[in-house]
Amino acid sequence: MTVLVVVLDNDLRALIKRILEASGCRVLVAANETEAFALAGSAQIDLLLTEATPSIHGPAIAERLRARTPVLPVLYVTDHPGLGDLDGEKILEKPFSRQDLTRAIAAVRPEQPES
């Protein structure tokens, strides 16, 4: 599974990347929308993990990527409690643990066929 991570903070982005790679994911990282769209243009994205903050507008990123992949699962990361529903999307509030992140990923990703 290829995960596009769009997170402003370098340390958090690196931590998420390490956690996801340890669980077997291919991880593409971006610090902003421009980088995210460039990466998405050259790879098939299976999951978008993005911030929903004033600096990174995750819903706009998701909308644009879903024009290409309509069923793209999205996980929003935020430090704004009570952010709201975001159209039924899964929200993971910071701070979070490794287990919180892996559970949230499992909750949003499509069922994987047995090999």
What do these coordinates show?
This protein has four helices and five strands. With 115 residues, it is an alpha/beta fold. The mean pLDDT is 87.
Query: Care to count the β-strands?
Result: 5
CATH topology: Rossmann fold
List unreliable stretches of 5+ residues: none
Mean of pLDDT:
87
Instruction: Summarize the amount of helix as a percent range.
Output: 25-40%
- The figure for the number of domains is 1
Task: Describe the strand arrangement of the main beta sheet, using strand numbers.
Answer: 2-1-3-4-5
First-last Cα distance: 14 Å
Beta-strand percent range: 15-25%
User: Rough shape?
Assistant: globular
Provide keyphrases for this structure.
single chain; Rossmann fold; alpha/beta; 115 residues; 36% helix; five-stranded parallel beta sheet
Summarize the model shown:
With 115 residues, the protein is an alpha/beta fold. Helix content is 36%, strand content 21%.
Draw up the topology in text.
Elements (H helix, E strand, L loop, with lengths): L1 E5 L3 H13 L3 E5 L2 H8 L6 E5 L6 H9 L7 E5 L11 E4 L4 H11 L7
Parallel strand pairs: 1-2, 1-3, 3-4, 4-5
